[in-house]
Task: inverse folding
């Protein structure tokens, strides 16, 4: 009897990740909740230091030694097999090692530091493939060359035997995509995949990700601070601030009906099509607080133009709307309560 597939391939609930650095405790991720729909692209956006990357690393148990998951769950619903809570296993457990790189893969932020300079490009991609699938070296090489060709790398038979320093930044990023996609994962996590690339190469990389997603039905988590990329790529959006998801909704809901003052400020701080050439972009007042700051109320209150006295006294709760849109703001709690 065929199992009915869950609409969501990943469900993160109340995820809390802390770093202990000497006597300091940094709450890098504080109660993050979001869903990744099967075959869709979820954008996680926010300023630098808001916890986007830590959230992604928590999903795959790739945290440094000083970091650990304090609470919450990361439920993965594979096409075949029973649901698994990834947060319950250690980073070196056989369960996580089996899933990491095969069922859930990650494109890291900086290929310059991620690729090993002493191994050929081909060896590094083949390693991930043979770790998870029983293939001979020859079979693996054929498959890798096919993928490199699909990713637009010229002369893949020759480039297979070359080293990272022989590749441009854009080509290195394509290699990172090849490593992540070689096992046809169900979930691809892309952490700022176009950082330091020029606009033309950036568009090519995003186009490659989109075509691979459409061809294989891959679900993607796209981590970025660039709202233009979000508008181009995503189906759903989670807006993060100081380790929390302050707003979650579809792309249309976030861009046309933003509810949280921080989301509105983010959108007003980036150029959009149709803007008058003499129209100034707005800046978000103040700066992002230190991650170890302890708050009594809303983390955004000191920078918020709509803040009220109560915002500084207690944490807001999530307000849920009938269309699935949700926001974490006291202003909407009041409206909901009449």
Result:
């Amino acid at each position: 009897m065929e199992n009915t597939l869950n609409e969501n391939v990943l469900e993160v609930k109340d995820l809390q990740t802390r770093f202990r650095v000497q006597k300091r405790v940094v709450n890098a991720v504080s109660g993050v909740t979001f869903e990744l729909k099967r075959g869709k692209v979820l954008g996680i956006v926010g300023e630098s230091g808001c916890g986007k990357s830590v959230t992604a690393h928590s999903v795959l148990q790739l945290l440094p030694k000083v970091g650990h998951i304090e609470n919450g769950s990361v439920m993965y619903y594979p096409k075949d097999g029973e649901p698994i809570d990834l947060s319950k296993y250690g980073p070196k457990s056989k369960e996580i090692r089996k899933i990491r790189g095969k069922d859930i893969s990650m494109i890291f932020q900086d290929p310059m530091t991620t690729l090993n300079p002493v191994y050929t490009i081909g060896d590094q991609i083949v390693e991930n493939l043979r770790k998870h699938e029983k293939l001979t070296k020859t079979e693996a090489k054929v498959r890798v060359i096919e993928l490199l060709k699909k990713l637009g790398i010229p002369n893949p038979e020759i480039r297979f035997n070359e080293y990272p320093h022989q590749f441009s930044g854009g080509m290195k990023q394509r290699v990172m995509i090849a490593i992540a996609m070689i096992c046809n994962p169900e979930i691809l996590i892309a952490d700022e995949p176009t950082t330091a690339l020029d606009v033309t190469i950036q568009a090519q990389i995003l186009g490659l990700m989109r075509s691979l997603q459409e061809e294989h039905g891959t679900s993607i988590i796209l981590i970025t601070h660039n709202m233009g990329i979000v508008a181009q790529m995503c189906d759903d959006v989670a807006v993060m601030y100081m380790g929390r998801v302050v707003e979650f909704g579809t792309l249309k809901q976030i861009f046309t009906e933003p509810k949280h003052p921080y989301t509105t400020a983010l959108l007003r701080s980036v150029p959009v099509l149709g803007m008058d050439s003499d129209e100034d972009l707005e800046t978000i007042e103040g700066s992002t607080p230190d991650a170890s700051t302890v708050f009594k109320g809303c983390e955004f209150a000191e920078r918020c133009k709509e803040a009220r006295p109560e915002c500084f006294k207690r944490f807001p709760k999530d307000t849920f709307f009938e269309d699935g849109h949700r926001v974490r703001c006291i202003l909407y709690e009041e409206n909901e309560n009449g």
The chain is about 30% helix and 25% strand. The mean pLDDT is 89.
